[in-house]
Amino acid sequence: MAMFSQTAEYALRAVVHLASGEEESQTVGQIAAGTRVPAGYLSKVLQSLSRAGLITSQRGIGGGFRLVKAAQETSLLEVIQAVDPIQRIRNCPLGLDAHGANLCPLHKRLDDAMALIEEQCRATTIAELLEAPSPRTKAASEEKLCAFPLTPAPE
Amino acid sequence: MAMFSQTAEYALRAVVHLASGEEESQTVGQIAAGTRVPAGYLSKVLQSLSRAGLITSQRGIGGGFRLVKAAQETSLLEVIQAVDPIQRIRNCPLGLDAHGANLCPLHKRLDDAMALIEEQCRATTIAELLEAPSPRTKAASEEKLCAFPLTPAPE
DNA sequence: TAGAAATCGGACAAATATGTCTAATTAAGG
DNA sequence: CCTTAATTAGACATATTTGTCCGATTTCTA
User: Fold this and answer.
1) Which of A25, A59, A127, B67 sits at a 20 to 30 Å CA gap from B109?
2) Closest CA to A15 of A81, A76, A84, A85
3) What whole-number distance in Å separates Cα of residue B38 and Cα of residue B52?
């Protein structure tokens, strides 16, 4: 069970990449190279983000995509909701309307779990993702290791 | 984003149904009717649960499926892992082997979220799901409202 | 105003998840 | 020993997600 869709994963990579880059504006090709997302598909994901108002696009020479808000003001949840919204369980999937808005214990638990995820994602900003890889390493503070400093390609 | 696959949902319904029924052993048809899961597909899901050792099957007249362990001793997680295992993120999906077991901050957060889910599911037993619909209602204690007391069909 | 660089939109293709059906096998009971 | 009721295994069908491609449009620059 993948828990996060490819589409959401790609959208998050793209936004992190945009937030980390020196360049204000980046083309699909640049973002694709920097995040290892298939360019054609990425293009669609970026369009979704654009329609949702998280990024803006500029056609033509010198164009590309850039963030609308600062990385500190954009949450993971916003990105996810823009491309592949988390579906909360609102009423019993079995159709037991016997208990109206009350869920079966099973679906109550499942929905609680989703609420947790939602909350975690709401509480995390893109800016928090621009630091070094892991809290476990101490040598990592030497150099900016993440927000995707990609070597050419793995094959 | 569905967060839990149909397959996992169906497996959980089936196990809850088995745990709640008076009958020890139930056929695919009975479980399908009691959970509103397509019988053909349910059959496969039950086979997965059987291979995983959570339920046993008996062919022929009087046969069917029954739980191996008591409902108090089976967790949501076991059921989910049996049919559609939660995939934790073990190494950076971008292929940044620069930081070995350390994840990018992005994937660290996503994996943390999945760890939360895993923990919730591990801590919840099937037995806990056999009670009345919601903690918010007080009138609900009158009668066993859940573990799926299905009326014929919604259409 | 022409050409180049970019997004936009939609058609199409491939992969995966979900669902259906049927023949084979097993077991109980007359 | 035959019939009936059940799982099992696999082929097939459909739906959804993911990925590719290309022509149309916009925009900058010379």
Assistant:
1) A25
2) A76
3) 21
Q: Write out pLDDT tens, residues A36-84.
A: 999 999 999 999 999 999 999 999 999 999 999 999 999 999 999 999 9
Q: Which residues contact A105 (CB under 8 A, 6 or more apart)?
A: B128, B129, B130, B131, B132, B133, B146
**What is the C-alpha separation between B31 and B27, in angstroms, rounded?**
6
Among B87, B132, B133, beta carbon nearest to A2: B87
**How many angstroms away from the CA of A145 is the closest CA of chain B?**
8
pTM of the model: 0.90
User: d(Cα B146, Cα A99) in Å, to the nearest integer?
Assistant: 9
Q: Which amino acid is at B33?
A: A
Residue B64's nearest CA partner among B42, B97, B79, B80 is B42
Which residue in the set A1, A113, A149 is minimally distant from B87, CB to CB? A1
